[in-house]
Every structure is written in C-alpha cells, then in structure tokens.
C-alpha cells in the first residue's frame, strides 16, 4: 500500500524524532482561558443558587423538590437542544457527524451503525449527542454563524416562553436561560467551539483555524472508521496518495501509523502537525500521538528508555498542564506509572482511561495496556477479558 508523500519542508530528520518538545508559546494564555470556564460555571452556579434561596429567581417559590426537578429539566434542555439543532442544520452548515454518544459519563458499551460509532454511556442524561466535523471545500463562516445562532436562539426562546408562563414553568425557564448564558460565555472564551464563530471575527485568524479542522470526503470516512475501531477501513479511505497533506490528513495518518505499529512515522508526522497547527486542541492531539508513539516504541524495543524517555516525559508533562482531559482518557498515565514502578496505580489509571475513552480506537489501546498490567500482577483472567474487549473493538 502506497503511503502519502510528505512535503520536504519542515519534515523532521530521523535524528529529530526524539525531541523534547517545548510547550506552546501561548500556553499560559490558553490555560487562563481554559481555567476561566470552570470559574465562570462555578460563579454562575453560586449566583443561581443564592438567588433561588432568596426567592429572587423566577419559579423559586415552587416546592423544593419540584423546583429541583424542573430546574434540572431546564438545565438538560438548555444543554442538549444546541446539539440537536446543530445536527439538524449540519448539512447546510457544512458539518457532518463522525460519531454518536448516548448518555454521558463512563463507557457502557458500543455498536457500529451505518459505519459510525454509537457509544453508550452509563449516565442517561442526554438522549444522544454528536461529534461534528467541518466538511466542504471551504469553511463557510456565514453558514456556521447562522447555524450557531439558531442553536442558541432555540433554547433561549424556549427559556423565554417558560419564564413568561410563570409558575412552576419559570423554574425550568430560569435554569435553561442560565445554561444559554454559560454557553455564550464559553463561546467568548474559546476560539475552536462552533459557537465561537458568533463572537470572533474572521480577521483574527478564525477562518484559518477552522479551515485546519476541515475534513474532505476521504478524511471524513477515515475519521469515522477510526472512531469505530475500523483501522483497515480507515487506511483504505486514505489509500490515494496526497502530495500536500493538510493538518487533518496528517493527524489521521499519524494515528493510523500508530495503530499499525509504525512508531517512527507516527512520531514524525505528529511532530510536523504539532509545529504547523494553529489550533490548540489539534496541537494537544499531536502531542498525545507523539507521546503514544514514543511509549509504544520504548515498549517494542525501537528506542531505549534513555533515548526516548526524556522526550516522552516532556510530552506527558505538557499534556498534563495543557489538556488534562485528553491525557486522562488515554493509556499514557498508566504507562508513566508503570515506568515509575507503580504497577497497582497504573492498573487504576488504565481502568480510568478505558472508562473515559471517547471512542472505540482509544478505548482499545487503553485496554491492551490494562491487560498487560493485570497479567503482570497475576490477574490472568481479568487480563484475558480486557484483551478480548480490546480485540472486539478493533477490526
């Protein structure tokens, strides 16, 4: 199978594959923005509870238990309706689904339907949510803005109607309105969420950042296949050579190389992606793939601990500061604990990573590490079960 030819400019030389990467130059600013989101959420929640306790929130005079149920219903509606609206408007907005989640929380099972992963989570709060990807030959910011505006206006309109109705309905309306305000705040603080198009101008590099996230037909098919654990199908989708791969193609190629055990090409392409990317989450994903390639290479004997260990430690350290949720939902914390001789802690970290994994491919990788760890502590039956689960997820 022919592999896409990488451009000569900027490609790390073999001696540069084992590189102690520096954190992004604007890491402090990005962390400040990320840290501001939970602070905004906490402040909003405290204000909401304080106003309700003082009977100043619409609907707060309703019986306590009923108020709690209605407030929760409004919160869930305000959180889920934007997902539903964006999914309905996906085609005109230039979006397409990659995978589907039912519920939230830890992994509860999965199936593949029409080539897309459907992951079932253990807490049935949301009926269904979608991971959407940008598609089309170019990013239409006007269409994205229109879809994002509708996605916020629908729950806002629902909240207004409930507030106008008064009585118990106002309790649901006030919590729904609070969620909409929080989503507006997130859109103002971030630059990569779809709703961010409403609050940032194209002249600030927004178009370039969104263009980096675009998926062509081949990349969309490969992303869907990888999420579903279909490595062979993903490779077939990218079989046609690409002389100048865009960032999305680079990320998919690096992930496929990792899945196929080609750790050096995976590390090389992840390095290139990290250095070229303008998008924070994409840079974090490149750092994660790079660290995974190094860890896999050490385990396979491709590199020694002395050769690749410092670069691996630096990459994991940056991920811990930069994208902790992405790090936790991978095998890397367990691998690091195993390298430090903390085997029982590594088992716990691998269990957590498998439970938090966003899709089948990532979960399968974590389960393989979990199986190795369980076998090393003498739990052969559970190790076989973890390995069986991993093999069931990958095709």
Task: Please render the helix and strand layout as text.
Layout lengths: L26 H27 L10 H25 L1 H4 L1 E8 L1 E10 L2 E8 L5 E6 L6 H25 L3 H21 L16 H7 L4 H11 L3 H7 L9 H13 L3 H14 L3 H21 L4 H18 L1 H5 L3 H8 L3 H14 L3 H17 L3 H14 L2
Parallel strand pairs: 1-3
Antiparallel strand pairs: 1-4, 2-3
Helix pairs in contact: 1-5, 2-4, 2-5, 4-5, 7-8, 7-9, 9-10, 9-11, 10-11, 11-12, 14-15, 14-16, 15-16, 16-17
- Residue stretches low in confidence (pLDDT < 50, at least 5 long) are 1-15
Specify the CATH class of the largest domain: Mainly Alpha
Give me the CATH fold name of the largest domain.
Serine Threonine Protein Phosphatase 5, Tetratricopeptide repeat
How many distinct helices? 17
The string of secondary-structure elements, in order, is HHHEEEEHHHHHHHHHHHHHH
Structure description:
Residues 1-15 have low confidence and may be disordered. This protein is of the alpha+beta class and 395 residues long. The chain has helices spanning 27-53, 64-88, 90-93, 141-165, 169-189, 206-212, 217-227, 231-237, 247-259, 263-276, 280-300, 305-322, 324-328, 332-339, 343-356, 360-376, 380-393; strands at residues 95-102, 104-113, 116-123, 129-134. It has two domains: 27-94 and 135-208, no CATH class; 231-393, Tetratricopeptide repeat domain (Serine Threonine Protein Phosphatase 5, Tetratricopeptide repeat), CATH 1.25.40.10. Helices cover 64% and strands 8% of the residues. The protein has 17 helices and four strands. Strand 2 (104-113) and strand 3 (116-123) form a beta hairpin.
